[in-house]
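Support case: adenosine-5'-diphosphate complex. Customer-provided input:
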Amino acid sequence: MANRLPYTIRPAPGGAELRRAVGGLVTAVEPVLLAEGGVWIGWGGRTAAPGELPVNLAVPREAPRYRIHEVLLTAAEYRGYYHGFANSCLWPLSHLFVGRAVVRAEHWEAYRAVNRRFARAALENAAPGRLVWVHDYHLTLVPAFVREARPDVPIAFFWHIPFPPPEAFLVLPWARDILAGLLGSDAIGFHTADYARNFLRTVRALPGAEVDEEQGAVLYQGRVIRVQVLPIGVDWDAFDGTARRPAVRRRAEAIRAALGTPHILLGVDRLDYTKGIPERLAAFGAFLDAHPEYRGKVTFIQVGVPSRSEVPEYQEVRRRVEEAVGRLNGLHGDGWQVPVRYVVRPFSREELVAHYLAADAALVTPLRDGLNLVAKEYVASRVDGAGVLVLSPFAGAAAQLPEAVLANPYEVNDLAAGIFRALAMDPAEKGRRMEALRRRVREHDLRWWWDQVRSLLRVGEPGTATLHAA
Ligand code: ADP
Ligand code: F6P
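Agent response - structure generated as follows:
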């Protein structure tokens, strides 16, 4: 169960129209459901009038592997729960933008009510011994709600974003309710050791909870809850395999030829202020100022997908990106050739991988990010062993990828220097770094992640839980 279904649902004559949703959670979790089956409970990206029926069907429609069970939200719930509490309060707090957090009791009330609704949907679908697997910060209260009604059901929770230090989390007046909600689970996973440690330190503030930091465990209400570091991986075969297809290689060549510059840089992000896109564009400008010899020789492609566009900060970041693109192209373009290409649309897997293959360097430079799958997808796609990953130390993926070129997005010249280093690096060093990165990303791919989750919960063994991603 996750806030978002892997599809956006639109009513259409003769049945619902389904479109792929974009985001790290969907990319990572859907292959598990495709392999194992189950039910994905979530929201289909639409608000519904009272009386409207939710969609409940088997997907993919052409070759069904699992079911989707839609949870409908009213317009008021969507504002209070999703835009309000989840995205204007928990999201900025968790990403350490404490000053941006909007803390409002009515948003919290909506969040609680919607969490109740998701828990009811989980209970409708949960069979004895079947795992309820809850994902992300939208649904923190669900584990305790489900446990209250069905203590026999195994529950796992995965937190996909950063978990902040207690000083930030405890700003929330309802922090203890959230901790107690999460501790309804049997196991809780995080991407990095820092997030798990922050969580355990924060749990110390919950009356009645005993924390064993060394063992990664919490004793609460007579149960032991295991806290694990399990960074999500990419579906290696899907990216590596796509990158080996001749048509995709040809498309990458065509992209290079069409742009006509010897060098290409690439950014791929949801249009979110945590991704540091305006900061990246400023650094690209600083790089061109510091290295005029690269003018006319490098194109930066920024691919963006609109996200949470009713939250003012998201409207603002989009405006800042568009202004920066215009400014850079005005200042550094020559009328025919422009240094920045900005594309706002979802790409197919093939098109995405072709762009990864075409780019000399990927700029993955968030101000703060739970993990960042784009970093791993870029590496998995570089079957040619070329390409440089420029990575922010504030992405969770940095803990696993030390061979990337690390650059601080808060300091424009540091990031500009990272871009220069990537482009000027000699091919042998590029090859060595990429080979090491590919080994790491392959070893800790999505299959590894799911095996870890499975063994943590002993899912599939006789008498224990079986997967049911309710
Ligand atoms: P987040 O979960 O915050 O969005 P991640 O980097 O972890 O960030 O995951 C983003 C996912 O969305 C990746 O799998 C990436 O390939 C995908 N994605 C981002 N932009 C696009 C796009 N324009 N078209 C298709 N997929 C995209
Ligand atoms: O990875 C963090 C996350 O919030 C996921 O939970 C979500 O699927 C993705 O980013 C995209 O966000 P949204 O569902 O709000 O469009």
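The CA atoms of residues 283 and 416 lie 5 Å apart.

Case will auto-close in a few days if no follow-up is received.
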